[in-house]
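Problem statement: downstream parser choked on a complex file, so we are re-checking the raw output for the guanosine-5'-monophosphate run. The parser issue turned out to be on our end (a line-ending mismatch), but while we're here, posting the original submission so the record is complete.
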Amino acid sequence: MTDSIFSKIIRNEISSHKIYEDDFVIAILDIGPLSEGHTLVIPKEPAATMDELSDGHAAALGRVLPRIARAIKKVTGAESYNILQNNGADAGQAVEHVHFHIIPRFVDRGEIVEGKPDKENGPGLRTTWKPGTLTQEEAVELGKHIKRLL
Ligand code: 5GP
């Protein structure tokens, strides 16, 4: 795969605000934050999407995500946050290198704490869920095929 901007950041060829690093993972402040403290947690392995990631790097991500989330909550005062992870262009992935967004939520404060918060038009995460339905038969059929591959 091609070298992503995150690989260049991992190799320190491009500057970033790195808040965490170990042998497998870095965490940096997002350059276009949706809210104060918006952080990207990135495996050093250059996998484009989660399904391409090795077990070792996946485990390393799982190990540090709670710790980084705790630190961000404490520093920003956020009580809520989203962990978001996009895979593929249709899912909104812009950088083809696995990354987890940790996005603190300050909905009642217009998301951005410093600067000029604007509840309607300012920066922030806006998600819309429109749930569908799943019948018993569909669930059994779909589940059977997925389970076979795991
Ligand atoms: P995606 O849409 O791929 O899930 O999110 C990519 C994220 O990477 C965006 O939130 C964007 O602001 C962030 N980003 C892109 N380039 C850079 C960069 O050079 N430095 C940092 N710190 N963040 C970046």
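For whoever reads this later: The beta strands are 18-21, 25-29, 39-43, 80-84, 100-105.
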